[in-house]
Every structure is written in C-alpha cells, then in structure tokens.
Amino acid sequence: MSNKLVDICVNLTDDVFLGKEKKIIDAANKNNISKMVLVGNDLESSKKVSALAEEFNFISTAGYHPHNAKDWNINSYECLLSILKKGHVKAVGECGLDFNRNFSTPEIQHSVFLEHINLAKQTNLPLFIHERDAFHQMVGILKDNIDDCKNMVVHCFTGTKNALIDYLDLGVHIGLTGWICDDRRGKHLRDFINIIPDDKLFIETDSPYLSPYISNKKPEITSAMKHLNKPEYLVEVAKDVAKYRNQSYDYICEITYQNYLKFFGIDK
Ligand SMILES: [Zn+2]
After folding, report:
1. What is the per-residue DSSP string for 155-195?
2. What is the pLDDT of residues 112-171, one digit of tens each?
3. Facing residues of 201 across strands?
C-alpha cells in the first residue's frame, strides 16, 4: 500500500500528545498518512496548530469548538482573523453546535457559530463543522446562510441516513471516522455511506478522541486504539470505508487525497 492518506482531523494540541508530536507524525508517515489537517478548538490551540503546521508542513484550522464557545469575547473575531490570514491556515473551525453535553449554552453556541460563518465569508475559506445532537438546528442555520457557506465539511459524521441526505443536498462534504470500524456504535453507517459522492468524501481519525472499539481487527490494534487513538490508525478507517462503499482501498486513498487538495485549496 503506497498510497497517500490524508487525516483531516488531528487534535495534535491535546495534552496526551504533548511533547510527542514528532513521534506521532513519524508513526503516521510510516503508515502512509502523508498529510494531516491540524484542528484548532480555541484561540490558544489555533495558534499552536498554526505553528505546528508550519513546522511540519501541514495545514491547520482556526476556530472555537462549540464546547469552548463560552470563551468567545470581543477580541476573538480579530484574533482568529489574523491567524486565518496565514497561508497554511486553510479552514475556519472547528466550529458548530454540540448539544450533547452543552458545555456552552445553545444560545452562545449559535451566536459564536454565526461569527465563524462571517469569518469564512470574509476570508473565503471553508467551514470545518462539528455537529452533535444538533442536526436540525445546524441544517436550519446552514440553509439561512447558504450564500456565505459555499464550502463546508461536517466532520465526524455519525448521524442517520436522512441527516446525511440533507447535508449532501446542501453541498456539504462528509468526514468519516473510526466509528465505521466499530460494531457497537458505527454499524448503522455501513448501510448508507455509499451514497456519499466520491467528490464529497473525507476520512479522519479525530485523534486522540473517538477510539473505536473494533471487533474485526487484529487484537493488538484493537487494544492500542482503545487506549489511545492516533493518526496512524487512519489506515483502518480507510480499509473499512472502502469495504462498505464497495470500492478499493487505493481508490479511497486517491479520491480523498484529491478532495483534500481541492477543498482546502492546496497547490500540491
Ligand atoms: Zn469535532
């Protein structure tokens, strides 16, 4: 397997990766994960991932995760804007709505998400969207602002077939994680991920989160992933996405790499 893989969601500033960034990246490279999108989830992490992206020749995002929307203040817009002007910062986010645990109130999440839509419009960059348990509200906001939201990815999609259809109707790209490998949580996805058009598909680990409980993999991979999810496990995601879309592994590598170049505006 010599194909290049792109992990579009790596939380490299998470504490568990602290001081091990190079090791994590080297291990990923050995598994043909040649590119990563390093995601920011507040101002500090957006600055950090920008620096890491520059150092390791990746790209990064800048934004406030909905959990952190409560930390938004009058300076946040301008601070993010200055980060987003750097050439290797290629998307606005993570941003969106997460009503699963409501670490920030839904009202604050909503208004901060609108700020991110304005940032995407002003910078002409794509939106990197996180949505959990907030599908109807998210679709409503995207529909109301569709002229300003031309390029969007909903990362870590774990919803229903109807939700997927509605997102695709809005022209949204879809990121699939290791849930697809997980017999307990991701089984429902296997029946319909083949409706995602080739040019809308991304794969990701969302590491170090979302460790999938894989039952059909080698035990050593399963237990390692349970312990800590890492970008190198993107290979397992790619294999299962290929399997359930009835496409080859090589083909998944190729289309997701091409989508990465086009969506994030990379000149190779
Ligand atoms: Zn997320």
Report:
1. -S----HHHHHHHHHTT-EEEE-GGGGBTTTSGGGGGTGGG
2. 999 999 999 999 999 999 999 999 999 999 999 999 887 999 999 999 999 999 999 999
3. 174
From the CA of 94, how far away is ligand 1's center (Å)?
Answer: 6
**Residues 23-40 pLDDT 10s:** 999 999 999 999 999 999
For ligand 1, the distance from its centroid to the CA atom of residue 208, given in whole angstroms, is: 11
Pick out the chain residues at pLDDT < 70.
1-2, 211-227, 268
How far away, in angstroms, is 111 Cα from ligand 1 center?
18
Q: How far, in Å, is the centroid of ligand 1 from the Cα of 268?
A: 26
Domains of the chain, CATH where assigned: 5-263 (3.20.20.140)
Give the total residue count for the chain: 268
The SS3 assignment for 108 reads: helix
> Using CA of residue 150, residue 156, residue 161, residue 162, what is the dihedral sign?
negative
